[in-house]
Design brief:
The complex is a heterotrimer of chains A (261), B (478) and C (435). In chain B, 22% of the residues lie in helices and 35% in strands. Chain B has helices at residues 2-9, 32-41, 46-60, 100-108, 138-142, 151-157, 159-165, 176-184, 425-432, 438-454, 459-468; strands at 23-25, 84-86, 123-128, 131-135, 147-150, 187-193, 203-208, 218-224, 229-237, 244-247, 250-255, 260-267, 279-290, 296-303, 308-311, 314-317, 323-332, 337-346, 352-361, 366-375, 383-392, 398-407, 413-422. Chain C has 435 residues and is of the alpha/beta class. Chain C folds into two domains: 2-278, no CATH class; 383-435, no CATH class. Chain C contains ten helices and 21 strands. In chain C, the strands form two sheets. In chain C, strands 1, 4, 5, 7, 8, 10, 12, 14, 16, 18 and 20 form an eleven-stranded mixed β-sheet that branches. Chain C is globular. The chains are: A alpha/beta (261), B alpha/beta (478), C alpha/beta (435).
Chain lengths: 261, 478, 435
């Protein structure tokens, strides 16, 4: 929800970024305040997934210009783990499979590391077990989930639920969910959306990166940004999503082209 | 990212110190006279001298194996010291008599030579260069009828057993290095577990090469009688020298009906420096014979040391329903080369074998898995499952898999799977984005990679092995 | 043992002392003479060599072979029964020599040229290509038999394919052996230019031949974005020795699909080396070997990824019955710098008889870190569950087993693009896997 005088969580101005010498982001702007949900939409190849990776600090991308601030602090020189400790969370489009590392031990390590960095107490395995059970039920996940190797052999839905589970235990101030809806059936989509809605509160913000409007039936955004050519070309409220759904992206792109001309 | 991986794989060699101790060393070189001298120093019976000389004469007719996927300079067998022992050479009755320098050495290595200090309750035979210096818990084990002593003592006190089993699993004709070992072996360990006895504690031998230019040629023989059980551990280290030393051991295991032998090794011989100078040539023949019905032999090895490793702990599954297992983690870094694996010979009916091999290559090293599964025509119902995974760290190293599968029985089922993976940028980024730093991420990934093997190590060894790989334990091992 | 191979080598050279017929070309002459010198120095392999450990050629080395007669009369109607309707050109070689009367080479083709060495050398442009590509064998798997072929071949089938739109033309090369205790050295050179598409069937049969040796070498060069389908059907006489070397070079983005089916000969050995020479490139190899009677069937394949982004997929299936012996050695080599290689290999073996054996060795040699490679090998019998299912539907044991063996083998040739050949191979499967 939009809250008056809410603190600014994310402020991105004129961000330029490239991979292997090819510029993908060409002056990206967005401001996100506490309590808000934003959706970043756009056709394939528009740069929306790149934005989420740059925000989290993916090493393959080089930032060539602009500013990237989280709660007033620049993220530019921070490693991905430092950003995570500050409260930035990226929900991956393709969560990585790591055979041999159990999901449970990974979650506990991540939780304790982030807790420690925030000056809070770490949990021992028994305490953590109690803690995680409540989160598991939120996402309709079985305890056996913890015994399996991290994302290894998980179905698409299980991987995405696992991402939201991680979001639940790491309690980020800013969650950016990259195509979390892709590859999900309606039931899984509902579970994931329900998780996000439950976890979201007045003091944090969520950015959804998506190609389709259907996730927005379950998570209501306050703002919608249309991205093309590596920059935001139109911003509107949730009605924009419906318009995109019925009319496609072309008209926005055309509108933008004619404006530029 | 690469610095984190570097820090983890490039830990300094902590066992690389040299002990200043007066030794009784023979001159370099090998001849029948040298063998006669070794034999007489040890007051050996004539039949054993005869065994040595036969082995030596056979060795002279053999050439070094060329098929392993390793390269090293030609070894000058006349430039090796074949016998080197701390001066006060008689085996000690109690710790008080052991040279304090030696005690200090093993304390530094963390080996419990003192029974009171040995919390783990593991009986240890300690071999320093060519001789065994002490064996702990002998009396306690004797109460169960278990014989655990140095090989030299066994020759003196139990000649019939040695005569019966020496060379019965690995004949001196087997290969170049087993022939050499049979000619010049100086000491080692002997275990005998009588019928129906379950060994009350883990038995262990700790090998230390100390003298520069000496070779180590030990022999281990374990006999498990009907229905008995034993768990045996072996550890090895050597000082850091800029020359190569040869280690050519022979290990023979014999399991009778329903007997169970579990043999674990953590091999941490000096590996040479990052340019490949120095280090041990580890050319070892290890073989177990599942002689009886329902017998079981299980090998677990963690190979992290040595400049060159050539080693295939094997099982001959002769008894019906016998089981052979091989669990291995081999880590190579810098210029290290390893060609290691196993051989499973299925001869009896319904014999089963299982192979899990995990190779980790870093630096400019080369790591090969070589394994043979052979099912003979009469081995009805034989089953084998093999899994060989490799992990590459950096793009200058190599990982190879050479599984040989030879099946001559139609009721056999043999399965082999292999994969190669790496610690990739995407994997690391995933961990980082969850707040876990790259060093922790790397050790977690490696830890996960080797987990299937480490769970087969005894707890104390698992701890040591994990430390060796530079890992944090995190409760996922054991 | 090695003495036998030395004597055999000498006897072959003596028996076929005649020199090359195309001696007008100096480069060709010296290439054949070099091979001869080389071949004289290093004798043919024996089981004491690691690569030939399971391929016992003692029987071959003990035999006395003579060169094949060059003008053997042959009944055209018999030949016709082996031809396939899909082929736009059929090249028939009798004892390694091109037979114009038995062959049908479509002259309408302008994009794909099929000819023998003599005609190829008469075409100035083609000559350049042939000179560049002939005898350019490289990498693993070259043996004394290759040198022998180069030294002694009488002719070369040359296929030159230019880009030809989207159609795949099929060319059938039928190698017929007619001699008793003779030898011949068939040679194939295929050059696919950029974006060319071609399908080649390399087919070996014996008509009246007995105890002969076929020693074939095929070289295939695939330029960027070309697509080649290559089917090798070895159905030589049950008394014959069949030795074959296939070397394939693959350029950027090219695709090579191979089916290697071995259902004949007493001892057969196929060395198949495919080398991805440039970025990208796709290799798919399917193999089927049937062992019956006392046959030895040995397939040594080597897939080399020397540059990034290569893909390879290999499935090799074998069925060993009677007293046969099946050998598979499948090497996948990922060279340094060949990042993002994706390779998978499966080897499945069925043992049908108590006296049959299977020796398999899938090898991975990897020197790049960002790769995905997996291989698997199994030796076993048909699944008990499947057997039970069939029996519970009323099939007796033998019938059920035959059906399952057949299904196991058929999977390999299911997507074979030459449909009529599928039916031919199926009949071999039925005949040779029956219990």
């Amino acid at each position: 929800m939009i809250i008056k005088n809410a603190a600014t969580i994310l402020s991105v101005h004129n961000l330029v970024a490239s991979i292997d010498g090819t510029q993908i982001l060409k002056g990206f702007d967005i401001t996100v305040k506490a309590g808000e949900i934003h959706a970043i939409m756009g056709p394939n190849g528009s740069g929306k997934s790149t934005f989420s990776k740059v925000l989290a600090g993916h090493p393959s991308y080089t930032v060539d210009g602009g500013t990237l601030e989280f709660k007033g602090q620049s993220l530019m020189d921070l490693e991905p783990d430092e950003r995570a400790k500050l409260g930035v969370f990226l929900g991956f489009q393709y969560p990585v499979e790591v055979p041999g590392v159990t999901n449970g031990s990974f979650l506990r390590l991540a939780y304790n590391t982030v807790q420690g960095a925030r000056g809070k107490d770490e949990l021992d395995p028994l305490e953590f077990d109690d803690f995680i059970q409540s989160k598991l039920s939120l996402l309709g996940m079985d305890a056996s989930f913890l015994e399996r190797s991290l994302n290894d052999g998980f179905s698409g839905g299980e991987k995405k639920r696992n991402e939201i589970l991680q979001m639940a235990i790491l309690e980020p101030t800013l969650a950016i969910l990259d195509e979390t809806d892709s590859g999900l059936d309606i039931d899984a989509l509902r579970v994931v959306a329900n998780g996000v809605n439950t976890l979201h509160g007045d003091s944090d913000a969520v950015v959804l990166v998506t190609h389709y409007q259907r996730l927005l039936n379950y998570i209501e955004p306050d703002f919608i940004h249309v991205v093309d050519g590596g920059r935001v070309i139109k911003t509107g409220d949730k009605s924009l999503a419906h318009e995109l759904e019925s009319r496609g992206y072309e008209w926005v792109l055309d509108e933008n082209r004619s404006r530029a001309a | 990212m690469s610095t984190a991986i570097d820090n983890i794989v490039n830990q300094p060699y902590k066992a690389g110190f040299h002990t200043e101790i007066e030794t009784d060393s023979m001159a370099r070189g090998l001849s029948e006279d040298v063998i006669r001298t070794i034999s007489s120093k040890k007051n050996e019976p004539d039949w054993l001298l005869e065994f040595r000389l036969n082995a030596y004469r056979h060795w002279l007719t053999m050439t070094e194996p060329k098929w392993p996927n390793v390269r090293y300079p030609k070894i000058d067998f006349q430039d090796i010291i074949y016998y080197s022992a701390p001066k006060s050479k008689a085996t000690k009755k109690s710790m008080d008599e052991v040279d304090p320098e030696l005690l200090k050495t093993f304390e530094k290595l963390g080996i419990p030579m003192n029974e009171r200090a040995a919390l783990a309750g593991v009986a240890v035979d300690v071999v320093f260069d060519s001789v065994s210096v002490t064996t702990t818990y002998k009396e306690k084990l004797a109460e169960y009828g278990i014989i655990f002593c140095s090989f030299s003592e066994a020759v003196r006190d139990h000649p019939d057993l040695i005569k019966k089993y020496l060379g019965s699993v690995v004949p001196y004709t087997d290969n170049f290095y087993s022939a050499l070992n049979s000619a010049v072996f100086t000491d080692g360990s002997f275990c005998y577990i009588p019928k129906g006895v379950k060994c009350p504690m883990d038995l262990s031998t700790y090998f230390r090469i100390n003298t520069q230019d000496s070779g180590q040629f030990e022999r281990t023989l374990i006999v498990a009688e009907e229905g008995s059980q034993v768990c045996y551990l072996e550890g090895c280290t050597a000082p850091q020298f800029d020359t190569n030393q040869l280690h050519a051991a022979v290990v023979e295991l014999i399991a009778m009906d329903d007997a169970d032998i579990k043999y674990s090794t953590v091999q941490n011989w000096y590996a040479g420096d990052e340019n490949g100078v120095g280090g041990i040539f580890n050319f070892v023949t290890k073989r177990g014979l599942c002689k009886g019905k329902n017998s079981k032999i299980s090998w677990t090895q963690v190979e992290t040391g040595s400049a060159v490793t050539w080693k295939y702990p094997s099982c001959i599954l002769l008894g019906d329903n016998s089981v052979g297992e091989f669990y291995s983690v081999a880590l190579t870094n810098h210029m290290q080369q390893a060609d290691t694996g196993t051989k499973m010979f299925h001869i009896g009916k319904n014999t089963r074998s299982r192979i899990i091999s995990k190779g980790i290559s870093a630096g400019k090293s080369n790591n090969s898995y070589r394994g043979l599964v052979k099912v003979s025509p009469k081995a009805d119902g034989a089953r084998n499952y093999s899994q060989c995974d490799s992990m590459l760290i950096g793009d200058l190293c190599g990982a190879n898999t050479f599984p040989y599968i030879e099946v001559a029985n139609k009721s056999a089922t043999v399965e082999h799977e292999a994969s190669t993976s790496k610690i990739g940028e995407e994997q690391l980024f995933y961990f980082l984005s969850r707040g876990i730093d790259s060093e922790e991420a790397v050790s977690m990934i490696i830890n996960g990679f080797v987990r299937d093997v480490f769970m087969h190590l005894p707890m104390e060894f698992a701890v040591e092995a994990t430390k060796l790989l530079g890992l944090k334990l995190e409760g996922s091992v054991g | 043992m090695s003495q036998q191979s030395v004597e055999f080598t000498a006897s072959l050279l003596k028996a076929d002392g005649a020199n090359v017929e195309h001696s007008t070309e100096d480069w060709l002459k010296s290439c054949q003479l070099d091979a001869r010198t080389h071949f004289e120095k290093c004798p043919l392999p024996t089981t004491s060599e690691e690569e030939w450990r399971f391929t016992d050629l003692t029987g071959l080395y003990k035999s006395t072979l003579t060169p094949s007669a060059l003008d053997t009369p042959i009944d055209p109607s018999v030949v016709k029964s082996f031809l396939i309707p899909e082929a736009s050109s059929s090249v028939v070689l009798v004892n390694g020599v091109y037979s114009p009367s038995l062959s049908t080479v479509s002259s309408a083709q302008t994009k794909i040229r099929v000819c023998n060495l003599k005609s190829a050398l008469n075409d100035a442009q083609l000559k350049v290509s042939v000179k560049r590509r002939l005898n350019s064998l490289e990498g693993d798997g070259v043996s004394g038999f290759c040198e022998m072929n180069t030294a002694l071949f009488k002719d070369v089938v040359v296929i030159h394919a230019d880009s030809n739109g989207n159609s795949f033309e099929t060319i059938h090369i039928l190698n017929i052996s007619t001699g008793k205790h003779t030898f011949n050295h068939p040679r194939l050179l295929l050059i696919a230019e950029e974006q060319a598409r071609v399908c080649v069937l390399e087919d070996y049969i014996g008509i009246g031949g007995f105890g002969y040796m076929t020693n074939a070498v095929s070289e295939l060069s695939l330029a960027a974005e070309s697509q080649v389908i290559h089917v090798k059907l070895q159905r030589d006489d049950d008394s014959a020795y069949h030795i074959a070397h296939t070397h394939v070079g693959i350029d950027k983005g090219a695709s090579y699909q191979n089916w290697s089916v071995s259902v004949g000969a007493v001892v057969s050995r196929h060395n198949l080396v495919t080398r991805q020479r440039e970025d990208g490139g796709h290799i798919a190899i399917k193999g089927l070997a049937l062992g019956h009677d006392k046959r030895i069937v040995d397939m040594h394949s080597c897939i080399e990824h020397t540059k990034p982004h290569g893909q390879s997929i290999q499935v090799h299936k074998t069925i060993a019955g009677d007293r046969s012996k099946i050998v598979f050695n499948g090497k996948v080599k990922v060279h340094k710098g060949a990042q993002q290689t994706n390779s998978s290999q499966q080897n499945r073996n069925l043992l049908l008889s108590a006296r049959a054996s299977v020796d398999t060795k899938p090898e991975l040699e990897i020197f790049a870190d960002d790769v995905k490679c997996a291989h698997g090998a199994t030796v076993g019998q048909v699944s008990e569950d499947e057997l039970f299912y069939l029996k519970s539907r009323g099939l007796d044991d033998d019938l059920a087993r035959n059906l399952l063996n057949y299904a196991f083998a058929k999977e390999v040739i299911e997507d074979l693009p030459i449909k009529s050949l599928g039916a031919v191979i199926e009949s071999y499967i039925r005949d040779q896997t029956k219990i």
